[in-house]
Amino acid sequence: MKNNFRYVTYVIVFLVVNTNIIFAQTSRTDPNDNQGWFGAKLKVDLPSGWGTSLDYQARFINDFNVYNGSYTTVGATKKIIKHVELQADFRLAVVEKGTYYRGSFGFEASKGFGDFDFGLRMLVQNQLQDFNDEYKDNQREGYWRVRLEANYAPTDGIQLYVSTEPIMKFGGVRPIDNWRNSAGVKIKVAKRTKLNLFYMYRPDYAKSSYNRLFQVVGLNLDYTLKIKKSNTGGHYLISK
After folding, report:
1. 233 close to 224: Cβ distance less than 8 angstroms
2. pLDDT of res. 7
3. Which segments cross the bilayer (predicted)?
4. CATH of the domain at 197
5. What is the radius of gyration, based on Cα positions, of the chain?
6. What contacts 204, CB < 8 A, 6 or more positions away?
7. How many CB atoms lie within 10 A of CB 79?
8. Mean pLDDT in the chain?
9. What is the pTM of this model?
10. Contact between residue 151 and residue 167 where contact means Cβ atoms under 8 Å apart
11. Average pLDDT, stretch 150-168?
């Protein structure tokens, strides 16, 4: 565990130093932004292949200078076969421009090979944007997204991962609306608890006349509970 805390320190120092270098190269007049996403997640694994989760995230934009708002997500999963699970969630975002409601549905397939694990996730999303500006009509948008992810666990307490995820908008001005490319590390810091540190490189093609670029540094605290059914009394217990 001490080695894991030392690893956390190294990663945070690396992120701070390198993001300062990256951010110093941009200008406020450029269509680029540097952001920080920070949150916590509770995940509960239930019997019979079911699962649920609650996720909260606060986001800072404009080179970390502006608090953009909060994002709260409630999700559910159901494993249908050994390597495939269905996923659904609802997200409420209270941000500067208004209140956004988003629902998602899809599936994720995963397969492990030794210390490596690979995943493919496909989602369809529908979002309603309720703007604070009374002169601006509410906006409904639909998206579909595909994520490929690879994980590597060099030790029991450390997991490295990379992922790429193009996000396509139904009826968008371009085939791809934006593209999330992420790299991160999940480090076990306590029982059932992992610290997720990540960097995201996110080109955005939503504008018809110019492209944008978002670079994100994030930190998330993930806590997982496993609920199992007792073989004797039929009671539900928290797995050790």
Report:
1. no
2. 52
3. 7-24
4. 2.40.160.40
5. 19
6. 177, 178, 211, 212, 213, 214
7. 15
8. 88
9. 0.84
10. no
11. 96
For residue 232 the two structure tokens come to 């004797």
Place of tokens 């944007």: 129
Q: Which domain, by its residues, includes 187?
A: 2-238
Amino acid at residue number 76: A
For tokens 């993001």, the residue is: 19
Domains: count for the chain: 1
Whole-angstrom distance, CA of residue 48 vs CA of residue 80: 10
> Degrees (nearest 5) of the Cα angle 78, 81, 86?
30
pLDDT of 21 above 50: no
Tell me what the mean pLDDT of segment 103-110 comes to: 98
Q: Roughly how many angstroms between the first and final C-alpha of the chain, as a whole number?
A: 18
Which amino acid is it at 81?
I
Bridge partner list, 75:
53, 89
Query: What is the chain's length?
Result: 240
